[in-house]
Design goal:
Layout: E1 2-9, H1 21-37, E2 41-46, E3 54-59, E4 62-67, E5 76-84, H2 88-95, E6 104-110
Antiparallel strand pairs: 1-5, 1-6, 2-5, 3-4
Length: about 110
């Protein structure tokens, strides 16, 4: 079965810029995690910060475009993995190994279809 693992963390912990020490530290951990996943990893990527986000919101049939994420939150979506796992328990075992800088959460969602 295919699963998406969504990584939520407080992006302010990484500081400004794309090449700070916190970013370099977590990228190294994700590279090691990718090697460990091997063939179970189907895809994934890190995301730019929420300041670069644009949201299209539909309400009562009307669409509006907004800068930034849809909701204010203490944790922001920072990246994702697409994995293949035999069942939810196996996906949970993999999700527990996803690197986060400090505190964070990994949301596990089965994909629809084949």
């Amino acid at each position: 079965m295919k699963y998406a693992l969504f990584i939520y963390e407080d992006e302010s912990l990484y500081g400004p810029g794309k090449n700070g020490p916190a970013i370099q530290q977590i990228v190294a951990k994700h590279m090691a995690f990718n090697r460990e996943l091997g063939a179970a990893r189907l895809g994934g990527a890190g995301l730019t910060g929420t300041s670069s986000a644009t949201t299209v919101r539909t309400a009562r049939g009307q669409q509006a475009v907004h800068d930034g994420p849809f909701a204010e939150a203490k944790e922001q979506l920072g990246g994702f993995y697409l994995i293949e796992a035999p069942d939810l328990d196996a996906a949970i075992s993999i999700a527990k190994k996803v690197p986060v800088l400090q505190d964070g959460s990994i949301e596990i969602r089965p994909l629809l279809g084949p």
